[in-house]
Amino acid sequence: MSTQSIATSSRWERFRDSYLLYSFKRDLIAQTSLLIFVVMVLAALLAPWLAPADPYDLAQIDILASELPPFWIDGADPQYLMGTDSQGRDLLSTILYGMRVSLVIGFGAVALQATLGVCFGLLAGYLGGRVDAFLMRLADIQLSFSTLMVAIVVGALFKAIFGGATYSDYAMWLLVLIIGLAEWPQYARTVRASVLAERSKEYVDAARVMGLRSRRIMFRHILPNTLSPIFVISTVQVANAIISEAALSFLGLGMPETQPSLGSLIKSGFDYIQSGSWWITLIPGLVLVVLVLVINLLGDWLRDVLNPRLYKG
Amino acid sequence: MALLDVNHLDVRFALRQGDVKALRDVSFSLDRGERLGIVGESGAGKSVAAFSLLNLIAKPGYIAGGSITFDGQELTGLGERALRKVRGHRISMIFQDPMMTLNPVLSIGEQMVECLKAHRRISSKEARAISLRKLEQVQIPSPEKRLDQYPHELSGGMRQRIIIAIALLLDPDIIIADEPTTALDVTIQAEIMALLLELCEKHNVGLILITHDLGVVSQVTQRMLVMYAGRVIEQGPTREIINDPQHPYTQGLINALPQMATPGERLNQIRGSMPSLSQLPSGCPFHPRCDFTQRHDGSERTPCKTEVPAFVRSGNCEVACHMVAELQDAERIVAEEDNS
Amino acid sequence: MIAFLIKRLFHALLVMFVISVIAFAIQDNLGDPIQQMVGQSVPESEREVLREELGLNDPFLVQYFRFAVNAAQFDFGYSYIYNEPTTEVVLRHLPATLELVFASTLLIIFLSVPIGVYSAIKPRAWLSRFFMGVSIIGISIPVFLTAIVLIQLFAIGVSFTPFPADTGWGAWLNGLLSTEGGMPAYGRGDPVHVFGTWTTNFASLEGLTYLVLPAISLASIMLPLFIRLIRAEMLEVMQSEYVKFARAKGISMRRIYFLHALKNTMLPVITVGGVQIGTLVAYTILTETVFQWPGMGLMFLDAIERSDIPLIVTYLMIVGLIFVITNTLVDLIYGLVNPTVKLTGKPA
Which residue spans adopt a coiled-coil conformation according to this UniProt entry (chain C) (predicted)? Predict the structure, then answer.
């Protein structure tokens, strides 16, 4: 027990004295971004308690109160702070719930693509030969098609296979699957490059000479050394996944309007922009941009601080 | 007056934590056709000294004081445009690693011709002809073909020959060579050095040779200076310094040469390592590693830890060492006593 | 050169093979040509006869071979929606998309290179910081949102009047905050006919106005990416030994920036550019949806909506072909710029 506490305290001290924390304390943009990000995540998590209304509850929706403007515009109803959408749902509540959906899909998809990509990257880099050639050729082809295109095609196929109604029911998990499948090559290439660099180093030889099995060498010895590029990519990828989800939802291949994400909110509002109800589309849009922007800013900061070897091109 | 006169040169790097002094009070001179060696460990400031002559130190480095007079012209305050006329024209440089020095996407010919055209109003055809002649001078096989080749098609030794040819293109007065052979194969090093020496002698070009190789310095240069932690600690005729080094550091360097060691014994290393420029010890920067901070009677030689030593003359050399100064004082007193 | 081309061609064929297998699998599993031909009312026995006649009961490989042979002749069958050969439908929509991509590419190249180079040469200038700030915001805005904002600002117009409009300065400030609107933001207008199914928006000023907002939207996602990439690469190149050596040779800074540094900077940029062309085509689906731009992307989305499997398959094959061709071209350009790539096929 005492060794345990020593280990944790030294880890905490290591973190406290680290360059990461030092540079964070000096970087106002990183601090602000993290603050906004944490507030948004909390707001999304606590949506059921924070939101004035439950947008999933059809009984609470008043169709007569549709397209009401936000509070600072004439004709607003103080009951609806940010106004209402075309179906009369409270926009603020819908946005809070939508942010929740977007974040779940964003993080879920990144978890999936990271798992896939790290495994494939480790395999390709460590085994080399045909496995490597096959996986990397696959990654090349997929990337040359652009991840969004792959996601759209896979999404379209799923929709055709399952039919529109089933697709809507499982949309959240399908989106995680689609975006996860579409974006693994980013991780795989970076991890592979790191593995190739690490593998030639002496400690890996030493581990092999000691008779460790290759799976153990990969996960216990090589993987920890590829963590900082993975970390940096992950931040950017969460932002990308949220954008991809929004794009798919905007195209009608994502979340249904009954259970909207930020993307499907923008889509449903877009039909009303010509009639002057800009807020239904632009307020969720602004929330989406701020969310993605703070994640990107954090990613930029991390990349500058950790400065890992990233795969270019 | 010498061709190149460097006086009390001070170079600093402006970092967030404050200025780091990379060169302090560096003075030396070079006559026309003279060959000078600058010797020291890596980090001693040799390269900074070389690059600061043409004000090519990378930011955040800057020249904080002192003067550099070349052919009667002060270089330190000179603008970029005026300096450009000196660079590559009157003073040219040879870099350390030939694999990195040539631009990979431009042909050898382009990289030679552009240099000529930057300094002279000549046609491309003339420039090409001159380039060809210089390539012949550095003894490159089939030079005509090389002009249209790209750096990656040539070996390291070949590239360094081309860089020497570029350095000679405009018949400069001085060539600054920053460790020109360290990145090369051992077998080629001697060849390249011999070529450089031959060309400098033939065209009466001055050479500032920066190296950590005392052997090369003794073969090539007439005078040398030894640098330590951003300062010159000893300078004078090469032969005198090599045969009879005065500064404990120079002595250590020469003792560390493999040929000075008894076979079967360890090499004579200088203990410790050079301090970082941002955390220099007080007094003589070498004192923590020096074996002579105590007198023979065991008493502490206190100035070593408190005062930066000034230069004292010793033969034709100048040495910055408290011990040497003290011994000279003692000798002088003995001599005066003998006289009286 | 020939060996290089053969190698690239082989790679291209491999990619096309993979795409065709995927496309065929889609058609085989999702498309039911019988349903399309005869409708619901025909009894099962008759369908079975038809199926046998059309070879739909043949082994997978035989069917794939037939598909591949037809695909090589650009014959993918009939579209359900349009009731005409799918290839003709796609070709009719192709010019609109290509013009949009072309206009965006022009914007991207002519803006990203000068801005990227400038912010690398003067990394501390306030203008560089401004560009970098704008570009990180730029990559955070999804392309369809940019499009919507542009429509709100320049097609619908915004009137924001917090200042007293009856004073001269108030009206001026209000004018700064408000936009006129009126830019066309729906469809292609009335493009000029060139030949065959090809019509162009580049031939008239009015046609160009239709192109402005969609092209800016499409460029908005890639432009910041390239600015950041060019800046980062250029900064790295400026630290290199060969740039230092060029300075030591007395070469002018202008020549160093625009020849020595830029040429090396462009190598990774060209590689990334090749990949991003694919992304650009993918984003046309979004842009065309927002602006109802009658291109392939809009057509594709329509085909998905209405399960027009032959049209989806044709779109995939033709877009795949476009990707493969552009990637090969990009590789070729890269080889021409980078002397360390041997186009001659001699061992390096």
Answer: none
Is the CB of C249 less than 8 angstroms away from the CB of B118? yes
CA distances in angstroms from A234 to A24, A106, A118, A229, listed in the order given: 18, 10, 11, 8
The answer to whether the beta carbons of residues A29 and A41 sit under 8 Å apart is no
CA distance C171 to C25: 63
Nearest chain A residue to C137 by CA distance is A293
- Contact between residue B212 and residue B245 where contact means Cβ atoms under 8 Å apart: no
H-only helix segments in B204-288:
214-220, 238-243, 248-255
Residue B320: name the closest of B7, B2, B27 by CA.
Answer: B27
Q: Are A105 and A176 in contact (CB under 8 A)?
A: yes
Report d(CA C57, CA C48) in Å as an integer. Answer: 9
Walking along chain C (348 residues) 10 residues at a time, the average pLDDT comes out as: 78 85 81 64 75 74 84 82 88 91 93 94 91 91 90 81 76 76 78 79 83 92 92 91 93 92 90 82 90 92 85 89 86 82 48
Rounded Cα–Cα distance for residues B76 and B73 (Å): 9
Residue B275, classed as helix, strand or coil, is: coil
CA distance B72 to B65: 18
C259 min Cα distance to partner chain A (Å) = 22
Residues C268 and A313: beta-carbon distance below 8 Å: yes
Cα of B312 vs its chain's centroid, Å: 22
**A57-66, B90-99, B325-334: lowest mean pLDDT where?**
A57-66
Sequence-ordered list of residues with C-beta below 8 angstroms from that of A145, at least 6 positions apart, any chain:
C278, C282, C320, C323
Distance from the Cα of C277 to chain B's closest Cα (Å) equals 25
pLDDT bracket for residue A309 (50, 70, 90): low
- CB spacing of A141 vs C140 below 8 angstroms: no
Distance CA B85, CA A90 (A): 72
Q: Tokens at residue A207, please?
A: 């581990």
Helix C143-150 to helix A227-250 angle (10° resolution) is: 50
The owner of tokens 């005392």 is B214
CA distance C263 to chain B (A): 7
Which residue type occupies B179? E
CA B135 to chain centre: 25
Q: How far apart are CA B48 and CA B60, in angstroms?
A: 12
The Cα A298–Cα A290 span in angstroms is: 12
Other chains touching A, judged by 3 or more CB pairs under 8 Å? C
In what order do the strands lie in the sheet containing B73-74?
B18-30, B4-15, B61-70, B73-74
Q: Do the chains contact at B105 and C253, CB–CB below 8 Å?
A: no
How far apart CA C336 and CA C348 sit, in angstroms, is: 15
pLDDT tens per residue across span B93-107:
999 899 899 999 999
> Going by C-beta distance under 8 Å and a sequence separation of 6 or more, which residues neighbour residue B1?
B72
Contact B194, B139 (CB under 8 A): no
For A221, the token pair is 């010895």
pTM over 0.90: no
Chain A residues close to C323, C-beta within 8 Å: 144-145
Bridge partners (DSSP) listed for residue A84: A90
Q: Is the dihedral of CA A245, A247, A250, A252 positive or negative?
A: negative
Cα-flanking dihedrals φ and ψ of residue C195, to 5°?
-160, 155
The dihedral built from the CA positions of residue B138, B140, B146 and B149, taken in this order, carries a sign that is: negative
C234/A203 Cα distance (integer angstroms): 35
Q: Are C174 and C163 in contact (CB under 8 A)?
A: yes
ipTM for the predicted complex: 0.90
Q: Is the dihedral of CA A220, A222, A223, A225 positive or negative?
A: positive
For B236, the 3-state DSSP assignment is strand
The amino acid that residue C305 corresponds to is E
Nearest to C252 among B54, B84, B89 (CB): B84
